[in-house]
Amino acid sequence: MKLILLHPEIPQALKFQTSLKAQNTGFRVVISLDNVAPELVEVAIIWLTVQDYLQRLPNLKLLLICGSGVDHIINAKSLPRHISLVRLVDPYLRNHFSDYVVKTIVQHVLSKEEPLRSKCTSHWTGGNLVFPLPKVGLMGLGLVGEATAIKLVAMGFDVCGWVRTSRPRILPEVYVEKEALGDFAQQSEIIVCQLPLTKDTVGILNTRLFAQLPRGAYLVNVARGAHLNEADLLSALDTCQLSGACLDVINEEIPPANHRFGSHPKITLTPHIAGTLEPEQQAIYSAKIIACYYRGESLAGIVDYHACY
Known about the structure:
The protein is of the alpha/beta class. 29% of the residues lie in helices and 17% in strands. Residues 135-274 form the D-isomer specific 2-hydroxyacid dehydrogenase NAD-binding domain.
């Protein structure tokens, strides 16, 4: 029987395995190559590490990546380009990611409104809770970015997007390619990075971009730590060009206790929780992708090796 191999480092791998078995894919689902023939593995599901496994799987056809980032996989020299590479950006993950961004933006907006702050007074005064919403700029309109845009627009936010390739998008105001990045930035009072990490996007959150934002803009990064030039962020905060930042990712995945961001009054750090994985949901979604692949149908989340995302 052909095999689906789950890498053991996947969070809650045993639960993932049990759920995937229940989907009746027609494959045997294993977590280890011990006591199995590697040449029977046609589908592998991984999270981070890839080099050691791929070199042992001569007949691998489909590689599924838990989470939305694939930069660590694309850069693996041992990855043959004939293998179909798919990001498992399932509906649960898209919803969780977009919820994180929306909650972060709403919290930032509310924190700036004086009438909403709790006060203890003996005199009742009226207040106006109607206030203008800042314009939100989304860097990246993939599966996660589109989910975020839909929720923000439904809440009344004016939203624009910046992307690197031209194709139909759900937003009416979309800026395309590097030449339009400045025009996009000038419109973005809150800027959200949801980009894939490629050689063209490393360090894209930098002094040049920050200087083009409206003064006092707010930054949210839920993509990769390498998108951000950390020294440039500190400088922008010191000069008040940026009013603050919420970072779910930084260059050091587990920052030391004395990290310069940890005690900064204008920076909120969260421990890479925007893209939390749910094994049962990912197993269900994996089974659908596998079925589509073997039926020869188009695959949601398929990675373009040339574009690196």
